[in-house]
Amino acid sequence: MSLPPGFLDELRTRSSLSQVVGRKVMWDARKSNQGKGDMWAPCPFHQEKSASFHVDDRKGFYYCFGCHAKGDAISFIRETENVGFMEAVEILAREAGMPVPKQDPRAQEKADKRTELADVMELAVRWFRLQLKTNAGADARAYLDKRGLNDAALERWEIGFAPDTWQGLWDALKGKDIDDKLILGAGLAKPSSKGGKPYDTFRGRIMFPIRDARGRAIAFGGRAMDPNDNAKYLNSPETELFDKGRSLYNVKEARTAAGRGQPLLVAEGYMDVIALQQAGFEAAVAPLGTAITENQLAMLWRIDPEPVITLDGDTAGQRAALRLIDLALPLIEAGKSLRFAMMPEGQDPDDLLKSAGKGAFQKLIDGAVPMVQLLWQRETEGRVFDSPERKAALDKALREKIKLIQDPSIRSHYGQEIKDLRWKLFRPQSGGRAAVAAGDGKWAGKGKWGKEPPYKASHTAKSSVLVAATDARMTEHLREAVVLAALATTPEIIEKFESGLEGMTCLDATHRGLRDVMLRFAHEGPEVLREKISTALGEDTLENLLSQRHVAITPCIRKPGDTEMASLTVAEELAKLEAARGLDAEIAEAVEDLNGVADEGVTWRLSEAARAADEATRSGQQESAEYLVGDNGARIDKDERSAWDTLMEKIIFSKSKDQS
Predict the structure, then answer these.
(1) Contact 24, 259 (CB under 8 A)
(2) Are 283 and 265 in contact (CB under 8 A)?
(3) Between helices 509-521 and 526-537, what is the axis angle to 10°?
(4) Domains and CATH numbers, the chain
(5) pLDDT tens digit string along 307-329?
(6) Which of 616, 589, 618 is nearest to 604 (CA)?
(7) In degrees rounded to 5, what are phi and psi of residue 116?
(8) CB under 8 Å to 220, separation ≥6 — which residues?
(9) pLDDT per residue as tens digits for the range 232-281
(10) Does this model's pTM top 0.70?
C-alpha cells in the first residue's frame, strides 16, 4: 500500500519516540536529559548493564553504541513487536490519534479478514477453557494437576480442553452466527470428505492457545489424552493468521522478561515452557513441533543475542541441536550466536526441575556450551583418529562447516578455536622418548613396548666410546632449539610446519612449553607471541634461547625476517630429527628381535636405518664448525662416528645389559 505524501513525516512528528521506547526500557536518570529529549537506557536489543542506547527525541532517532541498532519509531515497533511495516504504522498512528488512510480494497479486505479470524480464535479460547471445567474435562484436570499446574497456572496459560466429540466447537461457534468460512479459515474445523458437516480439528485434547508477539490468539496446540493417539501433540494448520515457521510459543511474555535481563531459553514443548516459567525462568519459548527455522532464529536474536537452547537429553534432542548448528552457522554475526544446555539423558527441562530443582537447572544453564563446542563434539565424539587419513577427514569436515560462516571475523575465531581443540586431541603424550629429560640420561616412564627403559652404564662401560651416545641426544636437543628459534623469529611460517612441530619430541619442559605456545598463538603475530611466551614461560625464555651459540649463528636467526631461509632451516632440522627418531625406533626393535646372533633381516633393517640417518647427517655438512659445538664444548657432528658403528655399539651395549 502507498501512503499519501507527508503522512509518515507527520506521524513521526506527532509521535514521541521517547514514549514509544519508554514502554520497553528503564531510562538512566543520571545520563538522560528529558528537557532536551536526550535519553539513555540499557539497550532493549541486547543484554547489557550500562546505558548505551541513546534516543534523540527531537530528531526522532535512536542508536545503540553497543549493538549498533538504529532507526525511528516505526522501526522500533517493528523490531520489538515483530510486526510488518503497515502494522507498525497502524500501531503508531493509533497511539498518536491519527487515522490511517484507507488501503486499496483488496488489502483492506485481507486485513479485515485477519481481524475477524483473530476474533473467532478468541471465542475458541474461551470455549475450550469452559470445557476444561465440565465433567468431560475431569481427566484432563487430573492430568494437569499431576503435572503440577494449579488453578493460577491454568488461568495464566489459558489452558482448555477439546471434548472428544466431532462437532462440539463447530456447533458452539455456529450458535454465535459465525460464518463457516471463518471457522474453517481459522483452522478450527475441517470439511467432511463425505459431504456432511465439517468436524472439529481438535478432539479429546488439552488445548494450549498460541499467541503472537502482539498477544493475538493465532493458533492452538493440542495434547492428546489418549496415549495411543498417533499424534501426541497437534498444532493448528497454517492459516492467514498462523505461520508455524514464524511463530514461537510464549514469545510476547518471553520478550518482556528478556528485556528485564533474564536469559532467553528455548525449550521443545509447551509444558517445558510452563515449567520454566513457574520456576522463575520467564524468558522461555518453544518452536511449534518442528525444528527451529531461519525465521524463528531471527525472532530469537531480536529478543536476545545469545539464546540458550535447552533441548531434551535424548537422541532426538541431540539431533535437533546438531541440525540447528547447520542452520545457524551461515547466519551468525558478531554478538549473535547460540549456546546449548543439553539435559541429562532421558530428561526434559520439566523433568529436571521436578527431580533436581531450580538450582540444578540454573547450573546447567550457566554451563551452556558455545556452538563451536557442539560442532567439535559432533565431528569427534565416538570416533578414533589413529591414522593420517582419519585426521585429514576430520580436518576436511570441519573446514567445510567453518566455510559456511559468512562473517570473516567469526570465521577466523572459529578456525582458531577448532585448532586449539584439535591440538588438545592430538597433543603428543608423555612417556617413551618424549619423557626424556635433556642431558641427564634418565627416562620418566616405560618405553613403547612396555619394557623398562635403558639402564645406567656400568662402571666399565663409562669409559668406553658408548658414553658418547649421549651426544646424539645433545644433538637432538640443539636441533630442537634451532627449530624453535627460527619459528619464534618468523612466526608467519609456523602454520606451514604445524604437523612437524606437533610431532617434535621436545626433550625438556622449556622446549615443550615453547612449542605449545607457538602452536596456539602464532596466528596473532610476533608481538603477541612474544608476550604469550613471556607470560607462560618467563621473560628471559626467548632471550636465553636466541643467545645460545649454536642458535645465534644460524643464518635465519642472524637475518630475521627472511621467511625462505627460515623455512629451509626448519624443514632441514625437522627432517634430521625425524631420521634420528627412525633410527632409534629400529634400534629398539632390533634389541627386541635379537636373540644371540642377528639374522640377515634384522641387519638389513639396521643398515637401511643407518643409511637414512647418515644421509640426514651428511645433508648438513656445510654447517659451520662453531654450530657443531654444544654449550658443554662437545663436538657433535664434525667428528661423529659413522651411523652404522654407533648403531651396532648401541645394540651390543643393550644386549650386554639384558644378559647381565
Answers:
(1) yes
(2) yes
(3) 140
(4) 7-96 (3.90.580.10), 103-242 (3.90.980.10), 244-426 (3.40.1360.10), 432-659 (no CATH)
(5) 999 977 777 777 888 889 999 99
(6) 589
(7) -65, -40
(8) 124, 128, 202, 207, 208, 209, 210, 235, 236
(9) 999 999 999 999 998 999 998 998 888 778 999 999 889 999 999 999 99
(10) no
